[in-house]
Design brief:
Strand order of the largest sheet: 7-4-8-11-9-10
CATH superfamily of the largest domain: Zn-dependent exopeptidases
Structural class: alpha/beta
Helix content: 25-40%
Order of helices and strands: HHHEEHEHEEEHEHHHEEHEHEHHEEEEEE
Oligomer: single chain
CATH class of the largest domain: Alpha Beta
Strand content: 15-25%
Bound molecules: zinc ion
Radius of gyration: 26 Å
Number of strands: 17
Shape: globular
CATH architecture of the largest domain: 3-Layer(aba) Sandwich
CATH topology of the largest domain: Aminopeptidase
Number of helices: 13
Length: 496
């Protein structure tokens, strides 16, 4: 691997000299690295990692400088040490005590995840990273919030106990959670959790993804699906907003008035955005209450860099089963998008990413946060608004979930066709074998090979060979290609 480190050094100077966003530089660097991309960050040499550390530090500093502060954070924050761990798959970042907020919650996690995403996206083009670990004066953020730590440890413990048999139990129940929705801000009143960007307000976009995933999980995987937000057409009395636009917290308050521990968790904690924080926690707490087998949280992503694109799935560090769900989810979303020429090049992360999401950490079952594109990018926003894109992505995620439940991994749809050796006038049956689980349509049993009858006619003393390329397309439009060779010998011709 021959990396263009001269360019990296030039870039570093550029990054450190400006607080404005550096998307274009980032882009040109990626273009220079070009085809020489490591499959993952562990393939980079120690020297290459060392050279990247100051670049990533500059990238993070530029992001921190323009990041809106949450209560308690210092106005000026200097990013400290940035280094790769020994195996090279994680980046360790020191953010200092000035980054520690007054309240721990989703609003803070959003900032941390945005920083991590900046690093993930940058590293995608060089050698994809699995995790970004932040410390605050050398300590984990939860060391500053012992109460929070206790809650998360509890969830983790019960997760460990129930995870494995839950994943195989075959109960078939899933929570599909559409991110965000209106909440009550103590200063600004009823407000959306995300603002309008490129024609998309995430709060109103996620329910469409949820509806599509719900329908596929029901019809294809035979799952019983629970939704975290209301589908009712009438209005929420207090806010006057349609129920479909309301955050989960209010839906659950209305449905489970006697279970305030789900929707009114940690009352009095969280400041002006208390109900926003309660909304985030209410989703996994509802999943725990239902005892579902998995929780799938649907979002669209955003960053200050308008060029950042693509689909990513986040899981909680150390939760291997969740990681597997995230991995197969990405794999089949990619497969599904590839079946449609309009979205076949839509970027999908090659691996899932570690993230700090309350939606995942409070859940006692496999739980993932799927970020289906960046609404802060024009192209992605157009896709998010497209019914076809949403349907393709959710069809893929459903297949990923189904494969996860069956204990299977990421299997490419492939086909093998035997060589066809014919004698003129005779019949030959070729068994075509499929790998993976395509949706067959006319082929009922995927385990039984498809048999194709061949026959040929050759003129005396004129054997011939034909080669062609065959495409097999399943009922979902997923394509597998193979080469076929057929040789036809005349009846009378004798072996040499
Ligand atoms: Zn979101």
């Amino acid at each position: 691997m021959n990396f263009a480190f001269v360019h990296v050094r030039v870039l570093r100077a550029a990054i450190l000299s400006t607080t404005a966003f550096i998307s274009n530089l980032e882009h040109s660097h990626a273009a220079e690295v070009g085809a020489e991309v490591a499959k993952d960050s562990t393939k980079l040499s120690a020297e290459q990692r060392k050279s990247l550390e100051p670049v990533l530090r500059g990238l993070l500093q530029a992001h921190v400088d323009v990041q809106e502060r949450v209560p308690g954070q210092a106005p000026i924050i200097v990013v400290g040490d940035v280094s790769f761990n020994d195996s090279g798959d994680e980046l360790l970042v020191e953010l200092g005590k000035g980054y520690v907020p007054t309240y721990y919650g989703g609003d803070f996690e959003d900032r941390i995840n945005a920083l991590a995403t900046t690093v993930y996206v940058y590293m995608d083009k060089i050698g994809p990273l699995r995790g970004v670990d932040f410390t605050f004066e050398g300590r984990d953020i939860l060391d500053y919030f012992p109460y929070e730590k206790g809650l998360k440890e509890q969830a983790e413990m019960s997760q460990r106990q129930t995870l494995f048999h839950r994943a195989d139990a075959g109960k078939g129940r899933v929570l599909v959670s559409a991110g965000h929705g209106y909440y009550f801000h103590k200063k600004f009143g009823w407000t959306t959790q995300r603002s309008l960007v490129n024609g998309i307000t995430e709060d109103f976009a996620t329910p469409a993804f949820a509806a599509s995933l719900d329908s596929y999980l029901g019809s294809r995987a035979g799952e019983e699906v629970f939704r975290a937000r209301s589908q009712a057409r009438d209005r929420h009395a207090e806010s006057g907003k349609p129920w479909t636009d309301m955050a989960s917290r209010y839906f659950l308050e209305n449905m489970l008035p006697n279970a305030p521990e789900i929707w009114n968790s940690k009352p009095g904690k969280g400041g002006d955005m208390e109900e926003y924080e309660q909304d985030i926690r209410s989703r996994p707490l509802y999943a725990n209450h239902l005892g579902v087998d998995a929780a799938i949280h649907l979002h669209t992503n955003a960053t200050e860099n308008p060029n950042t694109r693509g689909i990513r799935i986040f899981y909680t560090k150390g939760r291997d089963v969740d990681e597997r769900l995230a991995t197969v989810g990405l794999c089949y979303i990619k497969e599904s998008l590839k079946s449609n020429a309009a979205f076949d090049a839509f970027p999908v992360a090659s691996e899932p990413s570690i993230g700090r999401y309350g939606e995942n950490t409070y859940a006692t079952m496999p739980s993932i946060v799927a970020e289906i594109g960046f609404h802060s990018n024009k192209e992605d926003a157009a896709a998010i608004g497209s019914y076809v894109f949403r349907d393709l992505a959710m069809r893929g995620l459903e297949k990923g979930y189904r494969m996860f439940r069956e204990g299977r991994g990421c299997e490419e749809f492939t086909v093998t066709h035997p060589e066809v050796n014919l004698v003129s006038g005779a019949q030959y049956k070729a068994d075509v074998v499929f790998v993976c689980t395509p949706r067959y349509g006319r082929f009922k049993d995927p385990a039984v090979p498809l048999t194709i009858d061949y026959g040929c006619t050759a003129v005396k003393d004129h054997p011939f060979t034909i080669k062609w390329s065959a495409s097999f397309i399943d009922a979902d439009g997923i394509k597998a290609k193979t080469a076929v060779t057929m040789t036809c010998k005349p009846k009378s011709s004798r072996p040499a």
